[in-house]
Amino acid sequence: METDIDLLIEKVSQLNDLNNLMLKNINSGYFRLSREIKSIKEAVVYLGMKTVQNLLIIHIIQQLFSGGEEKRNRMFDMKMYWKHVLGTAVASCLVSEKLKKGDKYKLFSYGLLHDIGITILDICLPDYMDKVIEKIFKGLHQVAAERIVLGGITHADVGAWICRKWNIREDIINIIEFHHTPLYAQSDNEYIKMLYVGDVISNNYYQRLLGLNPNYEMDKQIAISLGLTDEDIREMVEEFPAALEQAWNYNWIL
Amino acid sequence: MKEHKIYGLIENSPLLPKLPDNISQILFYSKIQWKQILTCLLKKYRN
Q1: Which residues in chain B have their CB less than 8 angstroms from residue A125's CB?
Q2: A153 CA to chain B: closest CA distance, Å?
Q3: Distance between CA atoms of A223 and A233, rounded to whole angstroms?
Q4: What is the pTM assigned to this prediction?
């Protein structure tokens, strides 16, 4: 086992760009670590293997999928999408803090990964993605718009499908597949529900910024099952813009 | 079961990035129990 982890750390360390990007983000201040982290090995000890792995995956995906958008005149705004992704990560952390449940930094990293299906669709099928955005601007819920345009499936299905092909960890696949439908999840239920609440808070915030009527109504059953009251949700919605700004100020590289 | 046509379109898209081998080796071990690894590592650090 120790040989495996040493191998993983050695391989990440060999990829200088990835190694530096990871350490820069981990030391950005967001994780409130007591001292500077100088290696991936230290990061694993402080943040846990899953969180470090999740962060590595999101950085790799970002590198793989970067570029290209400047060539296209698109309805879909990739920058806004990454802002929402960071927003979901931040809001999920707020949920974890409010409930005093779960590992908030693991949730943060799940938040960064949850919408990978949108990245895949945007890169591979940009015209489909633009049609989805057109329908959202007309007032349709994102999931409904996707089901119409994509023939019954959503970005959550696409994200889970590609992650299965890539042999990514099952807990990540669960988060991606069920983040809009947490009650269907067979495992990791609490994390998926917390991420769901974070996703709704972030989505509604950004829809308001775009001048749209926020149409993501939170499923009360899910909030209640987590132990969240209406007052808790209202407080998190109020705290969210400042928490998000704080995350931006730490210069998270996304 | 037949795969959804969207998956076929994505799979055949020349724009779909291929994961480099070294990246897959780093991240996508399927059999490793990460909890056990972390426990081993923490034990190593504490000693």
Answers
A1: 6, 9-10, 13
A2: 8
A3: 9
A4: 0.80
Block means of pLDDT (10 residues each) for chain A, 254 residues, are 58 69 78 81 78 74 60 72 88 95 89 90 92 90 95 97 84 94 94 96 85 76 96 96 81 53
Total length of chain B? 47
Number of domains in chain A: 2
Q: Which residue has the tokens 């982290």?
A: A37
Domain of A71, CATH number, reads: 1.10.3210.10
Task: Tell me the chain B residues in contact with residue A50 when contact means C-beta distances shorter than 8 Å.
Answer: 34
What local confidence, expressed as pLDDT, does residue B40 receive? 47
Alpha helices in A114-188 (DSSP H): 116-124, 126-137, 142-150, 155-165, 170-178
Range of the domain at A19: 1-47
Give the chain B residue whose CA is nearest to the CA of A120: B16
Contact B37 A169 (CB under 8 A): no
Q: Are A64 and A121 within one domain?
A: yes
Residue A254 belongs to some domain of the structure: no
